[in-house]
Please model this.
Amino acid sequence: MTTPVLEIERLRKRFGGVIAVDDVSLRLEAGRIYGLIGPNGSGKTTLFNCITGVERRDGGRVRVSGERVDGLRPWEIAQKGVGRTFQVIRVFPELSALENLLVVTRGHLGGARTRALELLRFVKLEGLRDEYAGNLSYGQQKLLEFVRVLMRDPTLILLDEPAAGVNRTLLNDLLDAVRQLRDRGKTILLVEHDMKVVMGLCETVFVLDHGEKIAEGAPGIIQTDERVIEAYFGR
Amino acid sequence: MNVHITPTMLGQVVISGILSGALYAMVALGLALIFGVMRIINVAHGPLLMLGAYTTYFLYSALGINPYLTVPVSMLVLFVVGVLLERTLVFRVVDAPELSSLLLTFGISIALVNLAQLLFTSDLRAVEYLTGSWVVGPFALSKSRLVAFVFAGALTGLAFLFLGWTKLGKAIRATSQSREVAMVCGINVQRIHLITFGLAAALAAAGGALIAVIVAIQPEMGQIWTFKSFLVIVLGGAGNYPGALLGGVLLGLIEQVASLFLTTQLSEVVAYVLLVVILLVQPTGLLGGRQT
Model:
């Protein structure tokens, strides 16, 4: 068996009396697209925060490519090859589009510039490279945030609601880009409310409800799972 | 009071205001950086400036080094002091409520001033190097103030080049725009905090070194600079780095113009009255503060 890109074992996070993530275990293999779904407040974003080290977990283990990362600082985890986007877009508003990419690079500015310009061209933002990111449209900021993740060439990419607030054309471009990344061996885990996107893109779907993983499997199977239907629509 | 103001007097006041304004801007930029990146108001900023002034004084009086050549040395020494302070104390309050960081830096400020009184005594000390004025037409330009202006302008320019064009500078700006995103993007924000604090202390030290040539120094000279720097960043907009430039020059001009009409003691008050008014009327500063 190959080493999973992400392995979460009995991860637990509580906020006061509320258990946000309750003994969740996940295993993500290389070169696949995974979905993470669940009703609002089911712990999806908290799980992302625990993986990226923004929140300290209360129990359990997280391994990236076989290496323990729980307890590391967020930048150390990012340096191990984990990239993420946020539910609400978060670019650096007062850096130019180009600088938004340059600032997160690993090496020196010179080499990074070529790659940054390539990525801007990839999402058709090269004409706006010197514009403050805060002045870009919502869709453009979304694309910028997406390619900022790619700047570090991560092995694991966490996308928090990539389809939210995006028009059809842009969405299709984004989904194509995600598939291309998968084909290049990247592993993608995405939180998404748009079920069409999840069902059309993901090979495996995890379902969270009240912090617990209640189902896992191919999208077709998940859709008919009784616990999942109950979590979404009530009994 | 019946003052007759001539155009020459006004010109002189504008020149003096701009000369001291550049110094204010440079020192305040340090305070603005720490506030922007770490969300801390560093009350010890002025006392760090005082240490820079003493570094220059001792290098000049003991070793006879040209005081202007000591500027980079003072900056380096205080960069190290700043880094040590951040590493040992200040990092503990970065995520704490504002009061914790205010109290901590206030404590550091008192400790530094008392330490200086103990080590250097409260005697006034002067670096008598460049005295007198150059006379240009009807205006008199104090030599030491003019040189201080040139240094402050150049160092502030370098600081902005660093922030704008180097990777580290970009990372500092990114961290001040969103610390959490910077972290998740792989920027070691602990290191950024360390460097920012060191850099701010170095800018204060440059101010101290230049001031030492202008006026006599003593251990309590610093606190007023904390307040003036604070006033400058409030004028320019907290967290808005170019705003510190505008705020610095404005403060210089306001002080000088006020000195035309009022006694020295009263003109010192004008700046603080202005601080209160701006906080009440336009609390984000004249250029507006940070957006997030």
Q: What stands out?
A: Residues 118 and 219 of chain B are 9 Å apart (CA to CA).
